[in-house]
Amino acid sequence: METSNERVISTRLDTVTLITINRPESLNALDQLTLQQLDAAVSAIEADPHVKVAIITGAGNKAFVAGADISVMQPLDPIAARRMATTAQLLLNKIENGSTIFIAAINGYALGGGCELALACDIRIAADSAQLGQPEINLGIIPGWGGTQRLPRLVGSSRAKQLMLTGERISAGQAAQIGLVNEVVTAAELMPRAQKLAQTIAEKPKMALQLIKEAVTNGMEMDRNRAFAYEADLFGLCFATADQKEGMLAFLEKRRPDWRDC
Ligand code: DAK
Fold this sequence. Notes:
This protein is of the alpha/beta class. The protein has helices spanning about 30-45, 70-75, 80-95, 115-120, 145-155, 155-165, 170-175, 185-200, 205-220, 225-240, 240-250; strands at about 1-5, 10-15, 15-20, 55-60, 65, 100-105, 110, 125, 130-135, 170, 185.
């Protein structure tokens, strides 16, 4: 099933949805309309209990997302910039804290807001032709879509500072070395690999997927003792699901589990 809002195309294949940001003439730069349509696509996925995994990619072969649209940002006053920040941050929080597992399939430039969008996803796979970076410094601004927070948590503060202070772009290979992307494949292999990974994850029980995401995302922000207690709570919650009973019974009966996703 395909839903196209022109700037963002959502294609649902059973339990996996592919979201394509579709503004290739501007290297998929995010203007207000594209952001609104992306927000609508993410909300629709979150509202659909059938969807377990979403892949986000960019249209064309040059860019994932080359950042926020600079022509839209240039004339903003502080109040409008703050409003833009607040609404756009809600979208990334939805991706980071929602029940769906998000995979960024980085098919080209992932710069500024594009890199920040990928950072909010759970897993990042990149084509070997991709380039990543936070070039905001070259525009006289700082990353404003969570980059100053998510990037250091992922790659360490020193590497994050270097990327943000220099504005330099790094290759997909360098990004993999510092843990900014999980895997690098050829451009031709990118979507098949992302689909295969999505399928592998989508075959797992939904509640446990959701609780793993929640435990890691929220636990990272807690001190160790609270985080372990939180993990214990979520572990306990698994035993309220039909899939815990089924998964363990299936093991004992030496058969494949028949997940109910509840
Ligand atoms: N905005 C608008 N248009 C862009 C764009 C962008 N970010 N990136 C590329 N384009 C447009 C170009 O203007 C050009 O349009 P035409 O001239 O053809 O009309 C077309 O895409 C093709 O680009 P180029 O001709 O430049 O292509 P090249 O291959 O020569 O260069 C490039 C590719 C990616 C190296 C170059 O386009 C480039 O440097 N682009 C800008 C990258 C950048 O600086 N990105 C970071 C922008 S700052 C926030 C949310 C988000 C953000 C901040 C706050 N809040 C919620 C508060 C994010 C900020 C940013 O992302």
